[in-house]
Specification:
Length: 315
């Protein structure tokens, strides 16, 4: 079940009824559960008559005429994702990266209760109307360090064919934290929304999502006579989130590098640009035995990629 930006368009108690509390039968694993909890938190924020008012705690009563979810006295801090590195995603396999965060809460907010859900997620676009969101597929593990503070570890899981909606996803993402205290609510047909507590916090930090890249190289002929011309070809490609295939990365500068046999250091010989298909081709003079490779430095949307050296025997 994916809610993405649809929650922000709904308000009032109707919003909460549209995103009824997730039961074990509804939740398709932790990924879907986190998505559902985030949806409830967003809808609860929309339903709250005074979201900026003083926090009332998880179990404060709301006016009977119009049940209003209560804001939890809970905040998120010290968020990290993937150790501060960009999240590089390909076309096939699920990419999982670690998250860590700290939760500070009031003494009457039991984050370890069985009917309490919390996590962090990434989104792009605006906070009120995100264009896409990413969640974890494991329930965060939290450890109390005091009566009011806990440190948590979870993940962000990106399934290319499910979570990504196109190449526009290769950009900067922001982080938010969410928590929902269901407070024993199990009547999905007529829940008491006034007993639901929620917290939704923006500006926790963020990360960049990049399109995975690949670089190949081939030096020929092999072997080659000393002083003769060596042709070095290659292909620079990157993941395309529109069709989940790899396509050539065009008009990109790539370094041709050489490592002499017996050495551990590569030296840049020249810089070559990819053509309109991502292909690379250049020629050099063969002088000594060694390894040739292409090395791409990367861009904001695409990580660096370096080919494994191709050994050439010079006769």
């Amino acid at each position: 079940m994916r809610t993405r930006a649809t929650v922000a368009a709904v308000s009032g108690a109707l919003a909460l009824s549209a995103f009824v509390l997730p039961s074990a039968a509804q939740a398709d694993g932790a990924h879907a559960s986190a998505d559902s909890a985030a949806a409830v938190a967003r809808a609860a924020q929309a339903a709250s008559a005074a979201p900026s008012a003083a926090k009332t705690g998880a179990r404060s009563a709301a006016p009977a005429a119009e049940p209003i979810p209560a804001q939890l006295d809970l905040t998120f801090s010290k968020f990290t994702v993937n150790g501060g590195k960009p999240i590089v995603v390909g076309t096939t396999y699920t990419k999982r990266v670690a998250t860590t965060f700290t939760v500070t809460h009031a003494a009457d907010v039991d984050i370890f209760a069985s009917d309490f859900a919390l996590d962090v997620s990434l989104y792009r676009g605006s906070f009120d109307s995100p264009k896409n969101e990413l969640y974890g597929d494991v329930i965060p593990v939290c450890k109390a360090v005091s009566a009011k503070v806990a440190t948590c570890k979870g993940n962000i899981a990106v399934v290319p064919g499910f979570d990504l909606i196109g190449n526009a996803d290769a950009t900067k993402w922001k982080a938010m934290g969410f928590a929902v205290d269901y407070n024993g609510q199990d009547n999905l047909e007529n829940p008491d929304f006034s007993k639901i507590g929620f917290a939704l916090q923006d500006n926790l930090g963020g990360s960049s999502l990049q399109r995975a890249s690949k670089q190949t190289v081939n030096a020929s002929p092999e072997p080659v006579k000393k002083g003769k011309t060596l042709t070095v070809t290659g292909w620079l490609s990157r993941a395309n989130f529109d069709d989940l295939k790899y396509h050539g990365y065009t008009v990109q500068p790539v370094k041709l590098q050489f490592r002499k046999k017996g050495s551990s250091t590569y030296t840049t010989v020249k810089t070559v640009k990819t053509n309109n298909k991502g292909d690379l081709k250049t020629t050099v003079k063969a002088t000594v035995d060694g390894y040739w490779r292409y090395s791409f430095a990367g861009t904001s949307t695409t990580p660096a990629a370096t080919a494994t050296g191709d050994y050439v025997d010079v006769k």
